Amino acid sequence: MSVNVETLEKLERRITLNVAATEINQEIDSRLRKLSRTVKADGFRPGKVPMSVVAQRYGYSVQYEVVNDRVGQAFSQAATEAKLRVAGQPRITQKEEAPEGQLVFDAVFEVYPEVKLGDLSGAEVESVSTEVTEAAIDRTVDILRKQRRSFGQRPAAEGAQETDRVTIDFEGKIDGEPFAGGKAEGFQFIIGEGQMLEQFDQAVRGMKVGQSKTFPLQFPADYHGQDVAGKEADFMVTMKKAEAQTLPPVDEAFAKALGIPDATVEGLRADVKKNLEREVKFRVQSRNKAAVMEALSKAAELDVPNALVAGELERMIQAARADLKQRGVKDADTAPIPEDMFRPQAERRVRLGLVVSELVRTHNLQARPDQLQAHIEELSQSYEKPADVVRWYLGDRQRMAEVEAVVIENNVTAFVLGQAKVIDKVLPFEELMSAA
């Protein structure tokens, strides 16, 4: 069969489909007869409903199904015959004029683009690396100590100090008037840990239990409370309690409490280092992967199918609704979410997906079974029972698909870094860990 494919614009194509009316009618009749065996109608026994009644009640819906099925089959056959890679679903419309005994339809659709990858040897890609230093291990051990700290009442004669847990009453006013969220009793926070605005944090330092003071506070212009953002308030604070922290010593008992197999100080530091190196590896991979994807996007030439962008937009909007619902937002399922918010990101995702797929196909960068196994085992090492985590991944097709996608991206990243002009950069541990 010869298929005439008409190019409309860029990736858009049109095929004219002819379907024999006799085939349509025969299939409609066959389905109605099959339906008549089980359909129920008042005044008739099951299986004895006249065909005229069945046709009157179900004829339109059956005709719609049959035409859709037949046209869909005709389109699939024509696309296969023409060796077309169809992107998204076709828009099918029936033509009014048709030869006798024929139904004629136009199918308008998009095809996958030809991806032209430029010379990657000229692309500059920044590749970062980070070392886990002794100072980084020290800071992590300090964090573990803080997670297990205790608090005891500070002597009444002493003022509250940094790291103290304080309990206060406070009331704030703007132009002499109270404002929402500006008053609390028995409010608790730890001085110096960024839980409060810096001016507030500084104001309570040195205060003794039972002491009250008033101080001005300037809310930042970008403060999350829009009613008070950029305004100055006067706060009155009363110190109710001040408790000094006590950190556990770093010793064998501390290592044992953390569940370290080698319950020594050296064993604790070695375990912390191993975990930090694992986290650093994943963050470095993620950062280098982003740099590679940016370089690929710039080096590639292709038209992006609108149908694929529309599908990605729909997925992103549904994900946004699910997030709103989880946050308890009312009417999250019907809240207006403008597509323009997500369109640039959707187009980028589709574009990169097509480029990566082409690179994987042409350079055999698919995920190998040993790579999948190694990645799962690496992920499992941060859990208490790694073997259970490995089984959890292997036992679910969707989770394995997510692992496969990550491994493929890692393969693509390694391939591009092997081809491009790499700019090596050593990133301080703190900068890597603080990056979003």
CATH class of the largest domain: Mainly Alpha
The CATH architecture designation of the largest domain is Orthogonal Bundle
Multimer state: single chain
Uncertain regions: pLDDT < 50 for 5+ in a row? none
| Main pleated-sheet profile | 5 strands, antiparallel
Given the helix and strand composition, which structural class is it? Answer: alpha+beta
Query: What is the helix fraction of residues, given as a range?
Result: 40-55%
CATH superfamily of the largest domain: Trigger factor, C-terminal domain
The number of distinct helices, counting runs of at least 4 residues, comes to 12
Mean pLDDT: 90
Instruction: Based on Cα principal axes, name the global outline.
Output: elongated
Number of domains: 3
Task: Tell me what portion of residues adopts beta-strand conformation.
Answer: 15-25%
What structural keywords apply?
Alpha-Beta Plaits; Chitinase A, domain 3; elongated; Trigger factor, domain 2; 12 helices; five-stranded antiparallel beta sheet; 436 residues; 3 domains; alpha+beta
Give the structure's gist in a few sentences:
The chain is an alpha+beta fold and 436 residues long. The chain has helices at 21-36, 51-81, 134-147, 198-204, 252-257, 265-299, 306-326, 343-363, 369-380, 386-394, 397-419, 429-434; strands at 5-9, 12-20, 86-94, 102-111, 116-117, 124-129, 150-153, 165-174, 177-190, 212-218, 232-246, 300-301, 421-426.
Question: What's the structural blueprint in terms of helices and strands?
Answer:
Elements: E1 5-9, E2 12-20, H1 21-36, H2 51-81, E3 86-94, E4 102-111, E5 116-117, E6 124-129, H3 134-147, E7 150-153, E8 165-174, E9 177-190, H4 198-204, E10 212-218, E11 232-246, H5 252-257, H6 265-299, E12 300-301, H7 306-326, H8 343-363, H9 369-380, H10 386-394, H11 397-419, E13 421-426, H12 429-434
